[in-house]
Amino acid sequence: MRISKVLIATILALTMVLVGALGVSAQSGTWVSGIMIQNQSETEIAHITVTFWWAEGTANAGQMAHQFNDEIAAGKSKSYYVPTSAMTAGLPADFVGSAVVSSDQPVAANLNTQLPSDLGGDPANPMRMGTASGVLEPAPKLYFTQVMKNYWGWNSYIAVQNTGADTANVTVRYFSDATGAQVTTESGAIHPYSTKIFRQSEVGALPNDWAGSAVVEAADNKPLAGVANFFADGTPYADAMFQSYNAASAGATKLYVPRLVKGYYGYQGGLKIQNVGTAPTNVTISYRFGANTYTQTISNLGANQAVGLYMGTPSHVPPLAGVSGSGSAVIESSGQPIIATVNEDERTSGLGVTYNAIPDGAQTNAVLFPQITAKYYGFSGGLQVQNVGGSATTVTAVFSMQGRTDVVATASVPSMGSASWFAPNIVAPDFNGSVVVSAPQPLVGIGNGSYRYDWDNRYGVKYGDSFTTYNGINK
C-alpha cells in the first residue's frame, strides 16, 4: 500500500529533468537527465512512483507528462537514464520539466543534467554535466549564492519547482555581491509540481558582466525547491564547465565544508560566502589541511553581501601561503546567518563542480550517497566525509549495488578532519551503486565522479566537463 504524499520523508522533488532543447550557452542543443534513486530502508523494498510535470513556458505547462512505478531493493539504488530507460519510454522527446518521486519507504536521489553521454570524443563537442540532490524539505524562501550574466563569458539559470498542489506566485530578487543592495526583481506563476526557469541572461535590468546572488520567495508560504546551474560558453572544450548546486533554504552561524582543495593535482577550490541576515557580521574560516589548521577572518560582511575566495589567488587566502592539498573547513559567523557554496575546478581541461556548505544542525551519524561509480562506462568517483563531532571516530562506508555483495571500508578520522574513498580502490569495475557512511560521531559529506580515462580506457578519450559533485544526504 502506498504512503500518502503528505509524508515528506518519502517524497522527493527533482527540480529539473529534461530530454529536449535547453539553450544555456553557445553549445546549445539537446540536454538530457539521469536520475539515481536510493532506498534508505535496510529491510524493506521501496515501491516508488515517479511523476513528470511539464515546465512553465512549454505548450503543456503544468500538465503531467509521464508516470512510472518501480521497486528498489532494500538498501540499494536504481539508475534511470531518461533518454534510454524503459521506465521513461513514454516521456515525450522534447520534455523539459520536473519530477516528483513518492515511495512507501524513505528514499534519496540525485539528478544529473548533461549533454548526451555519447558526446565528448570530439573536442568540438565536449561533455557537459552537473549534479544536484533531490529535495526532501521544500521551503517558501530559497537562496542562490552564485548567479551571473555574461560574467567573463559565464551565465546562469535557476530552476524553481512548486512542490505544492496549488499555483505558486514567486518573486526573484537579485543582489549585488559588493554592496548587498538589491539590483532588480522578476516574478512568475508556477503550476503545481511544475518548474519555471529564470535565465539571468534574459533579465534586461541586470547589467552586462554581472555576478551576484538571488533570493526566490513564494507568496503565501508555498513550498519551493530550486537548483542553479552556471556555465562557461562551451567553446573551446576548456570552457565547458557546467556547475550545479541546490538552493539553500536557510542560513546558519556555522557551516561545514567536507572538501576544499588548493593546488591539488591542478585543481583549485573556491568559496562563495553570503550574509543572509539583516545586519553586518564577521566571518571566520578554519581551514584544515592534514593535521594543521589555518584561520582567516572576513570583517563586516554586510546584509545580503557576499565574498568570493579563490584558493588559486594568494591574496584571497593569505593564511594558506605555501599550503596545498585536499582538506576541509569550518565557516563561522559572529551573529548573522550565512550560506556558502564550494567550487572546485581544473581550468586547463575545463572541469568544474559546486556544492553547498552544510549548515550546523544538519549533521547526523549516517550520510547517504545515491550514486557512486567505479569504472562504469569510463566514470569513476568517490566520497569525502567530515567528522564534525568533538572527538576522533571510526567511520564505516558500505558500498552497495543490486546484484552484488556489499563492500565495507573503514577509516579513523579526527575531530573536524575528513576521510575520502575513491571507489575503484574499493569495489570491482562496472559499479554503479550507492554508499551509506556511518559513525558514532556526527558526519557531513559529499559525493563526486568524473570520466576517468586514466582509470578506465575502454571507452576512449573524452573532452569537456564530466566532473560532478553533490551533497550527501544526512539520515
Helix content: under 10%
- Looking at the structure, the CATH topology of the largest domain is Hypothetical Protein Tm1070, Chain: A
Fraction in beta strands: over 45%
* Number of E strands: 34
Radius of gyration in whole Å, from Cα? 21 Å
The separation of the N and C termini measures 24 Å
| Count of distinct structural domains | 4
CATH class value of the largest domain: Mainly Beta
| Corresponding CATH architecture of the largest domain | Sandwich
Query: What is the general shape?
Result: globular
Kindly report the name of the CATH homologous superfamily of the largest domain: TM1070-like
Individual helix count: 0
Poorly predicted runs: 1-9, 23-27
- The biggest beta sheet, please? 8 strands, antiparallel
- Give average pLDDT, whole number: 93
Secondary-structure class: mainly beta
